[in-house]
Amino acid sequence: MNDLEKKSFYSFLGLYIVSSFFLLSLTGFWYYTAQKHALEKETYYKLEHIADKKSGEIIMAHMHGTPLQAMAVPKEMILALINTQGKVTEGRLVDPNMHIRPGYFLVDGYNVLISDAPREHLNISYVAVQSDTLKAQLHKLKDSVLAVLGIVAFAIALIAWVLSKLFMKPVHQRVRQIERFINDVTHELNTPITSLHMSTDQALKRGECTAKTLNNISISTKQLYDIYRSLTYLNFSSRKESTEVVDLKEILEKSIAYYSGLAEIKRISFKTDLEEMLFAIPEAQASLLFGNLIGNAIKYSSPRSEIEISLKDKVFHIRDHGIGIEPEQQKEIFEKFRRGTSYSGGFGIGLSIVKSICSQYNIGIKLDSIPAEGTEFRLKF
Asked: Do residues 372 and 244 both lie within one domain?
């Protein structure tokens, strides 16, 4: 990835992780708080239940004049009975110096409930029930929540990494296509510019311009103009051009004549069968449509071969006898920046422009190609 891609990747990754961790932290805090309150209430009700039960036993023993029996309590709880003089008559207090008063307290890590329910029956004023289980439960709860949050955070980070990769994949592909496109355009521009430079340099040295030099200049200029037309179409294809009824035969003949010089370099001839055909399309786009197909046919044809072109019964045919297109490449050949082969250069926009114009003016397009034998395009107007 280049610097811009890395910046986008880590920005998306960071934003996803930070926002997810923030929500995860809120969820963890909410869950811990809710469970903590539930455990606190549960502990309180347990202490209260034991205190009320013991108080009931005290009152019943006093009313019936029977001895007070020792009450079995859970081993994690400590029971204490406090008489009217404030002395512990049974059990013990976790803090002997604690202030004795009815209520619910936290003393030295113990939850303490002091109940005055005995009402001084059997000379007992208070029942104190003490337990330190809540502290251990909260510690265990905290460890569990942190462990779950850690696992979920790891999963989120992993998912964020995968999603960031998926998010950046089409961006990365597009950047690669654009970079390759720029390199291809640079390479394509280099050939005609070099030819123009050499031809003009020779003409200046000789003091005259031969027919061959003029032809080289003409071909190079046309190549530059073709690149310019294609780039202009890409840049302004969203703008609507005024549609007019034109004779496709005339435009096609001009296109064939335009590319004849380029074809002569490879000793390629044209076999044509054209008839007059009227169609509503801007002349510039019709010329670009035919030009891309003819230019491609010349580029990928074998030297000293023939290109067959026909325009009859509302159908345009162009067939070359060149390298052809592999079947797996035929599915992607009309996509922008896609090239079926690296043979003879190109920068992967010619057929995408053809497809775009055909779609815009409802022109059917079909492709038949056999590797090492040739390619045929059919346009139905």
From this structure: yes
